[in-house]
Amino acid sequence: MIPFSPPRIDDKIIAEVVDTLKSGWITTGPKTKLFEKKLTEYTGGKSTLCVNSATAGLEIALRWFGVGPGDEIIVPAYTYCATANVVVHCGAKPVMVDINGDDFDIDVDKIRAAITDRTKAIMPVDIAGFPCDYDEIMSLVKEDSVVRRFSANNEIQRQLGRIMVLADSSHSIGALYKGKHTGSLVDVTVFSFHAVKNLTTAEGGAVIFNLPEPFDNDEIYKFLCVLSLHGQNKDALAKTKGNWKYDVITAGFKMNMTDIMASMGLVELARYDDDTLVKRKKIFDFYTSQFKGDNRFVLPVYETVDKRTSYHVYLLRVNGASEEQRNEIIRRINGKEVSVNVHFQPLPLLSFYNGLGYKMSDYPQAFDNYKCEISLPVYYDLTDEQMQTVVKAVKESVAEVMD
Ligand SMILES: Cc1ncc(COP(=O)(O)O)c(C=O)c1O
Which pLDDT tens digit goes with each residue over 126-141? Predict the structure, then answer.
């Protein structure tokens, strides 16, 4: 069976993890700090906090901004549940909006229509690695009429003076928007390093701060180190250096990254642009060359004048397929020893969000994109022969069900 997205575990990764294991320091320590520094350099953001998942990173960013009951956070209806779950964790309300039809990202006009006096943040999601319309989103939150509606509940919100843009860039490390990396485009950006991601630390995530003046992004980083570790004003490493005594300044969280995770991340990041992305682009381009010109397929948009994906998920659509037909096509592809996936079930289809009253019919574009979508295998070790097997399995299965 051709798998969907196994991690790339080679001798370099193993050697670096073993080095950490033998070093005597396996939790947050020098390798995590180095990984944070390298991520700041790579993304062009101002500071970086590594955490144990993107979910944790999104939640700590919302908590830092003081999001709570009575607040509204705008999210796309088309995303993984984590984007909205963290809003619920904070006691706030996810306000869902529909997506674009050509790509799968949040529709900026729909964001505008969803803004109220309660809106505290917008969480655009770079679905499949393709960056959202960031200039338009940043201009929108700075518009006079939108700024006037913003009501700050605390000092941090007063200092920003407008809606915060918190990008869920879980899929898009390395993606470019007008020549700039994700991480340097909005106020706060979160990446995921979960096992299926382009750059993995098994589990893990990073929060990139890029807040405007007069925020001090290094000070925010230092505070969030504390907040992500029980509110303890010294981490385990700092405690070994002289004075053991520490204080707890707030009831913080337990979200820190370990040096074992960071050691994988350091290897992955060092070869990311010149090796990982090159291979992933080759796979995307191959699939596109094979499905292009065949009107049974709608091809994903992944490179435009202004944007370049991180080549995370290849979102193929089968023209005119119903949800049931798509599911049957997937069953047949699986029968031909190829794993595929669906990214994602829009949130209103999930019991929890449906139970809260979100209705799929309010997000027709999200449903349209979802119902005929099939994500194809993309991973570093995928061979040319396997790519051909994938294409053959997809074409044959589509013909069996649709012709
Ligand atoms: C869009 C999106 N946001 C957030 C997450 C959560 O990432 P993590 O598993 O690192 O918490 C994921 C994970 O797949 C995701 O796809």
Answer: 999 999 999 999 999 9
